[in-house]
Predict the 3D structure of the following.
Amino acid sequence: MLYSPLYRKFLFPFYDRVIKRRNIYNYYRQISPRAWLPLEELRRLQQEKLRRLVAYSARQVPFYERLFAGKGIDIDRVDSIDILRKAGISLTKEMVRAAGDDLLSREFDKARLHSNATSGSTGDPVTCYMTYDNWCMKVAGKKRTEDWVGKPVGTRTTMIWGHKSRPSLRMRMKYALYWKFQNYQFLSAFNIGEESLLDYVEKIKRHRSRFIESYVTVVYLMAQAIVKHRVTPPRLDGILIGAERLFDFQKERIEDAFQCPVFNRYGSSEFMSIASECKEQQGLHINVDNLWVEVVDDQDRPVVGEPGHIVITDLENKALPFIRYRIGDLGIMSAESCSCGRTFPLLQDVVGRAADTFKTEDGREIHEMFFIWKLDRMPGVRKFQVVQKSLKEAQVNVEEDGTLSREKISAFIVEKLEELTSQGVSISVNYLDQIPLTKVGKMKFFISEISRS
Ligand SMILES: [Zn+2]
């Protein structure tokens, strides 16, 4: 296995600095040690970066020019996020969409910026912009977090992910070479069934990957196929997942089948890597050197140890400054520090998209987690999915495992969802051979078909 150290020590720095003339490697070297800085030093770094970001945005970004002036902010003295919070400053996806180019800095030419659309899980994607240099720093940040789980740059890895539909042959060859150069094997997460998952297991073994990177659903389905067909799992050091919430029952089953740890990560298109687990798995270390992450209650007050809305300030993105951005996820801020010794604070959990709720006639919203708590590990059921058809109708899609009669399963579901029936919601159970995944291979436990207001 000589390629990994060769790639890490020579090929990667050479490719990055000399051939691509970019800064990923330099940033990676520069920011990696920060995870051990004393907390006070990190706070000072954040404060200084925030002060500069606000002063810059107030002068270069039309949206903030107006916003800060309207709120009477002393733009050269904002060294704490509390000042902005108390002034009632926050940014939502709707505001980002409405502001359009007013949120972009005058300093940069939009056409030359790196752009990234958020996934449209809530229907309306937001396009975010960053400078190429800032993108390099974000990629470096992601590489740093992979070190935390014992996956240094160049580690043999299989990535199972979505991709752009039908690239040309030339592009396909280019990608294939690029992945191979990085010591990666790329497999498509599109249209996966049991047969292709078992085929993937063999491909992972042949590739001698030490890690898998994929969506939760993909590895979860693969774990089920491994158990069902009694296949020997590949010998892995770990599985890195992202882009979907990882539930405890999934983590347990994946770890059982693959006999290796599953590492949780939290990221988004706007910020790329936000927080990641280390080997100790006591929470997700937040990249606080570049992001100021808050968890707040409905009244915008900070909360620790209980779920709240995640609010993020990107301290490095000057092209499109995200200042107190309500990303739409719920999370729990931890008061504990990690035994690994890294000082980056921990998110105890990321609970899920705040937008995914079941709405009732009297205006209540039931978080999708409710359905997991109620219906998980239900006898006779392999997979389930709750679909809100209207304010008065819910449909539960079920894939059976054949161990229980349909009458019993249906009765069980109706009984478990008493909280809905007591609100006058009727429940129908729909038996399917296969619950369809989303286009990119993700499983959704809850889908709302009523318009979001
Ligand atoms: Zn740690």
Observations:
- The first strand starts at residue 114 and ends at 117.
